[in-house]
Amino acid sequence: MPESVSPKPQRRILYLLLALFFLPVATSFFLYYGMEWRPAGGTNHGQLLQPMRQLPASAQQLQGKWALVYVGDGACGEACRHALYIARQTHLLLNKDLWRVNRALLDTANCCDRAFLDAEHEGILILDLAEPATRAELLAQLPPGDHSHHLFVIDPLQNIVLRFDTRENPRGLLDDLKKLLKLSQVG
């Protein structure tokens, strides 16, 4: 008579295999939902602006396309020139998505060094927002602080999405913009 194998050792192996596969899933579910633990990392290089803010109606010309925007004095000092250079180079590196993105200078005072802008930044959109009420409306929508070293990424619906410090590696701005354009069906 053949010896039969007891079902208990087979059940133990089955339970061990089930635990091996489901324990990591249960642990991650518990950590994420039970303890409110969230991973701290992100993939964006610029600062994601929360809550969402919209540009005022005075900047309506930017609607319909993504935009790389510099907000500042139209006399365009050294920080402005560097930021516009970063915007131009990033725009050129977008290659096939170049047509989906505008570059803009939102002038808040002393408009504008036209000779420099025409020679170095052909095709840039210049919006003169130097009127006090218009300037106040614009600055109320931007994060507080000095904007002289920042570029803003604006979506086609005029939401201010990202703030990027131009003193950082500009490759991060290009990566962020490519990712947004890839995921976006608008603009």
**Percentage of β-strand residues:** 15-25%
Helix content: 25-40%
Q: Indicate the structural class.
A: alpha/beta
What spatial order of strands do you see in the largest sheet? Answer: 1-6-5-2-3-4
E-strand count: 6
The largest pleated sheet is described as: 6 strands, mixed
Low-confidence stretches: none
Q: Given the structure, what is the number of helices?
A: 5
Mean pLDDT: 87
Topology:
Layout lengths: L6 H28 L12 E8 L11 E8 L4 H16 L7 E9 L4 H7 L4 E4 L3 H10 L8 E5 L4 E7 L5 H13 L4
Parallel strand pairs: 2-3, 3-4
Antiparallel strand pairs: 1-6, 2-5, 5-6
Notes on the structure:
The chain is α/β, with parallel strands linked by helices and 187 residues long. The chain has helices at residues 7-34, 78-93, 114-120, 132-141, 171-183; strands at 47-54, 66-73, 101-109, 125-128, 150-154, 159-165. A 6-stranded mixed β-sheet has the order 1-6-5-2-3-4, covered by helices on one side. The mean pLDDT is 87.
What is the compact description of this entry?
The chain has helices at residues 7-34, 78-93, 114-120, 132-141, 171-183, and strands at 47-54, 66-73, 101-109, 125-128, 150-154, 159-165. The chain is 40% helix and 22% strand.
